[in-house]
Amino acid sequence: MHPLRTLALAAAPAAMLIGLAAPAMAADPPTPNNAATTSTSRVAQAPVKTWHWMGNYGSVYDVANAANGFGAGAGELITQDIGNGLYATFMFY
User: Fold this and answer.
1) Would residue 58 count as lying in a domain?
2) Whole-model pTM over 0.85
3) Whether the Cβ atoms of residue 56 and residue 79 lie closer than 8 Å to each other
4) pLDDT digits 0-9 by tens, 16-57
C-alpha cells in the first residue's frame, strides 16, 4: 500500500469524529458563570404582543398608511374586505 494512502485512511476516522462532535458541542446550552446572581436578579421582560382591533378603514390605502405609520412588521396586520366598502383591520403589537 502506498504510504500517503495509509495516512489518508488514518486521518479519515479522526475527521469524522471531529465532525460529529462539533454540532453536539454547539447544541449544548451555555452554563452561567454565577448561578446565584442569575437566579436572584430580576430581568425586565418585553411586553407580550397581542392582536388589537384597529377599526374599519374606507380603503386599502388608509390601511397601508396606518400600518406604515405604526411601524408594523411583516405579518403584524390583518385586514379583510367586509363587503360594504370597509376594511376590518387588526394589528399585532
Assistant:
1) yes
2) no
3) no
4) 444 444 555 555 666 666 555 555 557 788 888 899 998 999
What's the first-to-final CA gap in the chain, in angstroms?
69
Residue 38 lies in a domain: no
Q: What is the DSSP letter of 33?
A: S
Residue 29 counted as domain residue: no
CB-based contact 84:52 (threshold 8 Å): no
Q: For residues 1 and 5, give the distance between their C-alpha atoms in angstroms, rounded to a whole number.
A: 7
Q: What distance in Å separates the CA atoms of residue 63 and residue 27, rounded to the nearest whole number?
A: 43
Q: In this structure, how many other beta carbons lie within 10 angstroms of the beta carbon of residue 47?
A: 7
Q: How many domains is the chain partitioned into structurally?
A: 1
